[in-house]
Amino acid sequence: MTTTQPVTHLLYLHGFRSSPQSAKARQMAAHVAQRHPDVTFWCPQLPPSPREAMELVAQGIAQWPGAAMGVVGSSLGGFYASWVAHHKRCPSVMLNPAAHPARDLARYIGEQTAWHDPAERFYFRPEYIDELRALDTSSQPPASRELAIIAKGDEVLDWREMVARYPHARVLLQEGGEHALVNFEEYLPAVVEFLALA
Questions:
Q1: Which of 7, 58, 109, 118 is packed most tightly, with the most Cβ within 10 A?
Q2: HSE (CB half, 13 Å, CA atoms) of 13?
Q3: CA gap 177, 174 in Å, rounded
Q4: Average confidence score pLDDT of the chain
C-alpha cells in the first residue's frame, strides 16, 4: 500500500464572479492557519480571462512540489483545479465543480459584477469561451486522486453532470444543499483528511 505524501502547499481557486473573500475560501484559509500552520496556503484573485487566470496560477505555484501540493476549487475554480492537477500531477478537491463552463458561461458574455463587491465590474469577453475550451481536461484520465463534493440541490449546475464529469473521483453527494455549499465547514475534516494536510 502506498502511503500518501503529506500536503505542504495548498491552492484554493474561487469561482466565477467570486473572490478570496468567499465564505468557503475564508473558511479554508482560517482552518489551515489554525490547524495546519506549516502549510503554505494561497488563494489568488483570478482575472476574468481563463488563460490569464491559469498563467497567474502556474507562475505562483511554479516552485511548489507537485507531490506535496493539493488544490481545492469551487464551481469554475473546480474546473480550473482539474487543469492544475494535470499540470502538477497533484490531488484535487472540487466543490460543485463547473463541468461544462464553455457552454454554461456563454450566456454571461458582457459586463458582470463581482459577487462580493457589486461596485466592482468586469467584462466577460467572447474569446474567454475558447480559452475555457483550451483548458478542458475532461477527456483525460485524472493525474492524481480526486474528491468531488456535490450538492444535489445546486441551483446553478446540474449535479448529474458534475458526477458524470468525475467518474474516477471519490464523490460526497449531499442531498439538497445549494451551489454556495453553505455547510462547507462540515466537509473541512474530509477535505483535510483526503489531502493529508501536513
A1: 7
A2: 34
A3: 7
A4: 95
